Amino acid sequence: MSIDPKNCLFTLEVDRRFPKPLPGQFVQVASSTELTLRRPFSVAGASRPGEIELLVELRGKGTRSFAETHEGATVSILGPMGNTFSEPSTGEIAVLVAGGIGVAGLRYLAQELSEEGRRLIILVGARTREALLLGNLLPSATEDGRIRLEFSTDDGSAGHWGTVCELLDSELEALEADRIASPRLYCCGPPAMIREAAAIASAREIPCEVLLEEIMACGTGACRGCVVMTKHGYRTVCSDGPVFDAAELVFEEAPNA
Ligand SMILES: Cc1cc2nc3c(=O)[nH]c(=O)nc-3n(C[C@H](O)[C@H](O)[C@H](O)COP(=O)(O)OP(=O)(O)OC[C@H]3O[C@@H](n4cnc5c(N)ncnc54)[C@H](O)[C@@H]3O)c2cc1C
Ligand code: FES
Fold this sequence. Notes:
binds flavin-adenine dinucleotide; seven-stranded mixed β-sheet; Elongation Factor Tu (Ef-tu), domain 3; about 260 residues; Rossmann fold; three-stranded antiparallel β-sheet; 2 domains; alpha/beta; 15 strands
């Protein structure tokens, strides 16, 4: 299903032997017969038995030919792969921070936490109103404030004017003043956003997990093409991740630092 000219939501019927995925896990899709390498996509929903959802931004050949797959076609997928997020403990409030297509990596987590009755703040950022991935993709805000949904745009065309990390900082400030619940952060988005969110979490001594979307090749830990630097040496995103404790990652210097 096309959401807008740049993004599609796919519902895939899966074999009954396909294990129920955990939030954060991904599948490797053979998106085109012309491409050797499969393309990784986070499981963006698995609420109905026998189905998984993928939310895909159209970038290059693999994603574009996947979007052209006609309804009812058979697509080969491998998975579910990778690790999952930690559960928030009682007394913690889950703060989900998504930048752009990062919504795909956190959508299933948001659904699961919402169904478990958890307290949830979802922050979504994009460059412009048109690029904001909201619609009915995420759990709705509740009147009792258990689930809150806030958004930001870099150009101020919708929601808060600024980056999603600026929004995150002000939400954390408010939570700190409230002293009702301690936040636990879950982030997915472009590298600069991940780096900034991790720095905010570190400065405020808040637990933070990030889902990384490095470019992959084999997807099985063999080629080492998706390594990231951690405090314990290089780790592969495909087999050690894609979810990492932000405090364990070693980030490259920001370009303008
Ligand atoms: C664990 C994981 C989960 C992912 N989940 C999702 C998801 O849920 N939804 C989604 O839309 N995408 C997701 N991605 C990214 C997705 O895999 C790529 O966008 C896709 O493989 C691009 O394939 P393509 O053939 O269309 O583009 P290509 O022709 O391979 O590349 C087109 C352009 O996109 C760039 N590009 C390719 N891969 C990435 C990437 N991973 N990050 C940034 N730029 C990239 C290339 O450098 C190139 O400029 C995920 C990646 C990983 C590793
Ligand atoms: S993609 Fe080959 S090791 Fe991760």
